[in-house]
Design a protein that fits this description.
membrane; alpha+beta; 4-stranded antiparallel beta sheet; transmembrane; transmembrane helix; 44% helix; 10 helices; DUF4339 domain-containing protein; globular; 292 residues; Dna Ligase, domain 1
Length: 292
């Protein structure tokens, strides 16, 4: 429909109206991505730009140039892949994060606040061509894991045993590995279990956990360790026909995490930097066609 007006959702704000030519110019400049919410006259509801047939077709948007190591788009124009995105309110994010923290400090509520938090945040994640995800994890599935993780937060602060926190570090890593397996196994889409599994070795996972802790000695090396760890984690998610990848670089992880940390220290910017960082982090995960 020529001459219609377009609106774009940018964070918690609405931008527009844009004329058809202005909107096409935004697409050409890369300001409109597949995970951008848009609306125009005649549409019943807001939609992701990537879900509107023909909107981002070749000739209207610049070609996608994959990062080094990322999967290239298929030659036949298959658009079965793309970056994940998340729709969250910064205030709800802050509130749920505080409940999560308080629940772990109180220990007993830890399984319930953890399951609630994971279920909420996963339900806000959108996967291209699949829609929003869901979560079916029950707090009692692995209640002992969350109780153990909560108890470990007190180790070192309430005991005089030298180096006890370091000795229990592998146990904390193992409990984290169990959490990842539980979360991945309970992800759903369109109300149906995806039957995913995390097949990464617990010993390698513990190794990554220890390496990350040691990398803080280098001041900045942890960012590259973290990105490599995320790529390893994604490569060990099985049960999906599409490959899951983590595309951020170490440098991107470094400066964005530093900005998030500084904003958190200043307290007042916490809701905004938390929402900004979470949206960016989720967008670094993508699902693309597996290369045979």
């Amino acid at each position: 429909m020529p001459g219609r007006s377009w609106f774009v959702a940018a964070g918690d704000k609405q931008e527009g109206p844009y004329s058809e030519d202005e909107f096409r110019d935004l697409i050409t400049r890369g300001n409109i991505r597949p995970d951008t919410y848009v609306w125009a006259d005649g549409m019943q509801d807001w939609q992701y730009a990537g879900d509107i047939p023909g909107l981002l077709s070749p000739g209207r948007a610049p070609p996608l140039i994959p990062r080094p190591g990322a999967s290239a788009p298929s030659a036949n124009g298959d658009q079965s892949g793309g970056s994940l995105s998340i729709e969250i309110s910064i205030w709800e994010m802050l509130g749920r994060a505080l409940v999560f923290l308080i629940g772990f400090l109180l220990i007993i509520p830890a399984p319930w606040v953890a399951a609630s938090f994971y279920g909420w945040i996963i339900s806000r994640i959108h996967v291209p061509q699949r829609g929003y995800l869901g979560f079916t994890g029950n707090p009692l599935d692995i209640w002992y894991v969350f109780i153990g993780l909560a108890l470990l937060t007190y180790v070192g602060g309430v005991t005089d045993i030298p180096y006890l926190s370091y000795l229990l570090f592998p146990l904390q890593a193992y409990l984290s590995w169990l959490t990842v397996r539980w979360v991945v196994a309970n992800i759903t889409a369109e109300g149906q279990p995806l039957q995913l599994s995390f097949d990464g070795s617990p010993w390698i996972y513990i190794g990554w956990y220890l390496l990350l802790a040691l990398s803080f000695i280098t001041i900045i090396g942890w960012a590259w360790v973290l990105t490599a760890w995320m790529r390893w984690t994604c490569s060990n998610i099985a049960g999906t026909r599409r490959a899951i990848s983590f595309n951020a670089t170490g440098l991107e992880t470094l400066w964005r995490t530093l900005v998030f940390s500084i904003g958190s220290v200043l307290i007042i910017p916490i809701p905004w930097v938390m929402g900004w960082y979470t949206r960016w982090y989720v967008s670094q995960f993508s699902a693309s066609e597996r290369l045979s």
